[in-house]
Design goal:
Structural class of chain A: mainly alpha
Number of helices of chain A: 15
Number of strands of chain B: 10
Distance between the termini of chain B: 74 Å
Number of strands of chain A: 2
Largest sheet of chain B: 5 strands, mixed
Strand content of chain B: 5-15%
Shape of chain B: elongated
Largest interface: A-B, 124 and 118 residues
Radius of gyration of chain B: 30 Å
Order of helices and strands of chain B: HHHEEHEEEEEEEEHHHHHHHHHHH
Number of helices of chain B: 15
Helix content of chain B: 40-55%
Oligomer: heterodimer
Order of helices and strands of chain A: HHHHHHEEHHHHHHHHH
Shape of chain A: globular
Helix content of chain A: 55-70%
Strand order of the largest sheet of chain A: 1-2
């Protein structure tokens, strides 16, 4: 008998339901359990980063208190950045939502390689533990900024340049192994195991975003792996990949010939796609949430798909816009400014399409929708300030100031986090079978949305003024007025407020687990497959006896003449349309023709 | 509903914040008006998009929110090719309108005029030094391998073109008004960045290679040089000053600065002449400079002559010792060696005294912990072995009295020392002392220093 991958097996009895507690919840190969494990680990370590950010903000807002010494300040900066970018955002979007949604939205029983998937989460946990261990070694964590720029990061005298840096490098390498195991799985499952009728152009945008982001990760993380390994050699073996002849504490070092700029190129060859590894899943998830709660199809679906692909491709051609004032060949500026601004076009198209999805919709303003709308606002803001920094000559005065800090927090901090919350609230009923508390959810939204804007809008203006980032304290500087310090103090208060408000989320999640209303299978009236499972939360194998068949795209909301304002993807019926497929668009008046249409039309072309 | 109003208010609030904000670009002091112009163009275009898209979104939410009666309905419109095409074209035009001036100005930014005044800025953890071409109009070759205690610039001593280079070790550079300046940038150690906010230009310094930037100063005045590439714990205190003056004033200043050759043959003090003056010092500091705690006089044997000389000058000029009683006593005594020559001689004499390590008077701390604090915070200037260096302006700490060091740290902490504007690097100690936040940490560092004897 030919081998049929687990994900494609129609027959649920072939699945060996895990029985013991250990095989069900710990060594589980079920993508849903793995998703929750991935998500929980990421959120836990994210809380560490949140605490670090408050310590940093206290130092910046109230330098007189000197709550941190310079070394701890820079260590907090470094760990906050690395944890947020890699261990929280990347892991939660791809390991968390990727794992949960891919098999459900693609109509499969599980990932194609469930054992590899299980290894992925445990190796991820190992990488997190290695990273956290660096808090407890002599010298403490790495402290050269999350970019780990050589030679600073491994030069004696930098906090954590020995043990902390070594653990950071090992942890990143282990993380990349974990990501690769998970990533190969996501890509293969999406390409290989989609259920009957689910063509690529019928996939929900969540899957498109996760799919392209994973491909970016599979190409970009090796650059980080290479630079981390070479940096490790320079640190441990005294090689000179990145270290030139230079002074260290007044003495000549024994290395020569290395190139600090080479490290920056390698780092950003990973680092820029990394921005989109986080952003593309966010784009995808938010598209589905907006469409569902606006009760309207996502506007310009095909444009949205091509925009995701175009942004993903372009993201490999823009990395040196992080290096305009690094001293690299100045002629690079022309090329990278051009590619960077070109990327603004597909990105802007996505924003227009989100807003146009709201236009003439029937908008349900619940908690997930509020977070999604909040995302559009902060993403517009962060995207537009990116046009300043991408345009080489404007970057010169603003580079390494608080403008940069404000920009990237707005665009890849606040925006993806708002999407994460939107998504966590949106899929909470499917994951737990219960509704969350809507009132607490809304209060959480307002505190987070308004609070973060109060943090980051004024921060841009410190940047215009010229206040540099990564300063332990400003000290006396003529062009920085006392009012800037007062502003800094206020930003810190806003940050503490926002951080505190996050307690509401955890209260809501845990309280609703027991006390939330039973949600039923499809509380939002959503079209995508994950809401059509026979059980909620979905059981092992997801689909019971038979895999679903797909007959339509993912956005049949408010189809004229349909009995409900949504038609699930697996519903076989008259009201069907694939985007741009006008000849197959069946109008209610045209029922006769519809009845005559053979089923085979719905099979993948 | 509330979200539509909130979006409206956020847009209005952002615009108000923008116009009311006292925090904006500093008044420009270079010819890079074009950079400011590009920013203005970008600001208007992006500002328009920000307002238009958000207001449209707020309106859409308000207009198309689900009504309670359940009668509202969405339309079904998967695509609208015309609209999507129109928006792409519109966006592309907007992007091009920002990119074109940006690239145009960038072309200017990287094309240095031939007649530019050459100046070199050399960065190190956490100081600046400068170099100007001498009479031959050419900077001599330089490299980190030539750096010694007396040659912090790394000028190649065997290169004849470097001998007449004018070298500046104080954190202060001058530039003539309206003359294009090409600032060549080198680093002794890690990455740094040369930034003057009012110039709008900045560029990184990279060990192992030279980078550059250029500008034409358009306004006289004094401006701060900041490092804007993270360079270690003292990143925020790596400061210097750039002074823009008329050409003649610039020439006069440049004329006062030594050439490289001159710095390599500095006049030596005469210890015998200095011995005469030292009798006044001996009553407190002891015949052999061993110090006397009961007189609050530290050991001075073992200190570098340039440091002793400078401290005497600081005491005389009121840069040091005005804020504390003990310092005031010393200031009075410093007047007994009033001339530069007298200071140099007595310092030379002090350098001849045998330096015995001072005895420990304070309780021992955790030396291992002290080592880590010292390595990360102090060693970049005071050197790994605590001997200090002229090139980093740092005195030797080896064998110094623990009670004296503890008191100095305390004075730096509360601003009794180091805050005078003429004290070039005192402000650095005012900040770095925060690396030792309590008595325990101070004791740890002092215990570590004791191991260096």
């Amino acid at each position: 008998m030919a081998y049929v991958p687990l994900a494609d097996q129609d027959d649920a009895h072939a699945m060996h339901d895990p029985e013991s507690f250990v095989s069900k919840y710990i060594w589980s190969q079920d993508h849903k359990v793995i998703a929750i494990q991935y998500g929980s680990i990421a959120i836990m370590v994210g809380l560490v980063a949140l605490v670090l950010s408050i310590m940093m903000r206290l130092q910046l807002g109230f330098p007189g208190l000197a709550l941190l010494d310079p070394a701890s300040y820079y260590q907090a900066v470094t760990m906050h950045g690395m944890i947020m970018v890699v261990y929280l955002l990347t892991a939660l979007f791809l390991g968390g939502f990727g794992n949960y949604l891919i098999p459900l939205m693609c109509g499969t029983r599980d990932m194609v390689f469930p054992f590899l998937n299980m290894l992925s989460v445990w190796v991820f946990l190992l990488s997190v533990l290695i990273l956290l261990a660096s808090f407890f070694v002599p010298g403490g964590t790495a402290g050269a900024g999350w970019t780990l720029y050589a030679p600073q990061s491994i030069t004696e005298g930098t906090p954590g340049s020995g043990n902390g840096m070594l653990l950071m490098i090992i942890s990143l390498a282990v993380f990349i192994i974990a990501f690769t195991m998970g990533g190969l799985n996501y890509v293969t499952t999406i390409l290989q195991a989609r259920t009957r009728g689910l063509t690529l152009m019928r996939l929900p945008l969540s899957i498109w975003g996760i799919f392209v982001a994973t491909i970016l990760g599979l190409f970009a993380f090796p650059a980080l792996l290479v630079s981390a390994i070479m940096l490790g050699f320079d640190l441990m073996l005294g090689t000179s990949f990145f270290i030139p002849a230079m002074l260290q504490m007044g003495e000549m070092n024994s290395q020569e010939g290395g190139s600090p700029i080479l490290f920056q190129h390698l780092f950003w060859f990973f680092g820029h796609p990394e921005v989109y590894i986080v952003a593309l899943p966010a784009f995808g998830l938010v598209s589905d949430i907006l469409s569902c709660h606006a009760r309207k199809n996502i506007f310009g679906y095909r444009m949205m798909v091509w925009a995701i692909i175009a942004i993903g491709g372009l993201s490999f051609l823009v990395w040196a816009h992080h290096m305009y004032v690094s001293g690299m060949n100045p002629y690079f500026g022309f090329f990278f400014a051009t590619t960077t601004l070109i990327i603004a076009v597909p990105t802007a198209m996505k924003v227009y399409n989100w807003v146009l999805t709201l236009w003439e919709g029937n908008i349900r303003l619940n908690t997930p929708m509020l977070f999604a709308i909040g995302f559009i606002f902060t993403f517009i803001h962060g995207g537009l300030t990116g046009l300043f920094l991408g345009n080489v000559v404007i970057d010169v005065p603003l580079s390494d100031t608080y403008f940069v800090v404000a920009h990237f927090h707005m665009v890849m901090g606040v925006s993806p986090v708002l999407v994460l919350y939107a998504a966590l609230y949106h899929w909470y009923p499917k994951i737990t079978g219960r509704m969350f508390n809507e009132t607490i959810g809304k209060v959480h939204f307002w505190c987070t949305f308004l609070g973060t804007y109060a943090i980051y809008l004024p921060m841009h203006y410190l940047g215009f003024l010229g206040v540099p980032r990564r300063y332990y304290e400003m000290g006396n500087t003529d062009f920085v007025p006392a009012s800037a310090q007062a502003l800094n103090a206020n930003i810190t208060l806003a940050a503490i407020f926002v951080a505190t408000a996050q307690i509401l989320f955890f209260v809501n999640v845990f309280w609703s687990l027991k006390n939330g209303k039973k949600s039923g299978g499809n509380p939002w009236g959503a079209t995508t497959l994950e809401w059509q499972t026979p059980d909620t939360p979905p059981k092992h194998g997801n689909w019971g006896e038979e895999l679903p068949s797909v007959y339509r795209w993912a956005y049949d909301y408010s189809v004229p003449g349909a009995p409900r304002d949504y038609i699930p993807q697996n519903e076989h019926g008259d009201f069907t349309a694939d985007p741009g497929d006008e000849e197959h668009l069946v109008h209610p008046e045209d029922k006769e023709h519809a009845h005559g249409a053979p089923d085979t039309q719905e099979i993948p072309r | 509903m509330a979200i539509a109003v909130a979006l409206l208010l956020l847009v209005v609030g952002s615009v108000i914040f923008h116009f009311a904000s006292p925090w904006w670009f500093t008044d420009i002091a270079s010819h890079w008006d074009n950079i400011d112009l590009t920013i203005t163009i970008t600001f208007w275009i992006t500002g328009f998009v920000f307002i238009a898209v958000n207001l449209f979104m707020a309106w859409s939410i308000y207009r198309y929110r689900q009504k309670k009666d359940g009668k509202s309905e969405a339309i079904y419109e998967p695509e609208n090719k015309k609209l999507e095409m129109g928006l792409s074209v519109f966006t592309t035009i907007g992007v091009a309108a920002m990119l074109a001036p940006g690239l145009f100005v960038w072309a200017q930014f990287i094309s240095v005029p031939e007649d530019a005044q050459e100046v070199e800025a050399l960065g190190s953890q956490w100081q600046w030094a400068f170099r100007y071409p001498g009479e031959d109009g050419e900077l001599g070759t330089a490299d980190v391998e030539h750096i010694t205690d007396t040659n912090p610039w790394g000028v190649n001593p065997n290169d004849p073109t470097g001998q007449d280079d004018i070298v500046v070790k104080e954190p202060r550079m001058y530039l003539p008004l309206d003359v294009p300046a090409r600032v060549s940038l080198r680093s002794r150690d890690v990455l740094h960045n040369f930034t003057v906010a009012q110039f709008r230009a900045k560029m990184d310094l990279i060990p192992g290679m030279a980078t550059f930037m250029w500008l034409t100063p358009t306004r006289t005045g004094e401006f701060e040089v900041l490092c804007e590439e993270y360079c270690g714990l003292g990143h925020h205190i790596m400061r210097a000053e750039v002074v823009i003056t008329e050409q003649d004033e610039f020439d006069a200043w440049l004329g006062e600065q030594p050439t490289f050759a001159e710095t390599q043959s500095r006049p030596q003090g005469d210890p015998e002449a200095g011995q005469q003056s030292y009798t006044a010092c001996a009553s407190c500091h002891g015949q052999n400079g061993e110090g006397n705690q009961s007189m609050n006089a530290p050991r001075i044997a073992g200190l570098q002559p340039w440091y002793v000389e400078r401290q005497l000058r600081y005491y005389q000029e009121g840069v040091r010792g005005t804020e504390d009683q003990i310092g005031q006593q010393m200031a009075a005594m410093a007047n007994t060696v009033g001339s530069e020559e007298a200071r140099r001689n007595v310092s030379a004499y002090v350098a001849t005294l045998d330096a015995e390590p001072a005895e420990a008077t304070m309780e021992q701390g955790d030396a291992d912990r002290g080592f880590r604090i010292y390595r990360d915070n102090c060693a970049a200037c005071h050197m790994k072995d605590g001997t200090g260096s002229w090139s980093t302006d740092a005195p030797s700490l080896v064998g110094m009295n623990d009670w004296y060091l503890a008191r100095q740290l305390e004075m730096y902490r509360n601003g009794q020392r180091g805050e005078h504007p003429e004290d070039d690097y005192g402000y650095q100690m005012n900040s770095m002392v925060k690396a030792m936040r309590n008595d325990e940490q101070v004791a740890a560092v002092l215990s570590y220093l004791r191991t260096l004897q």
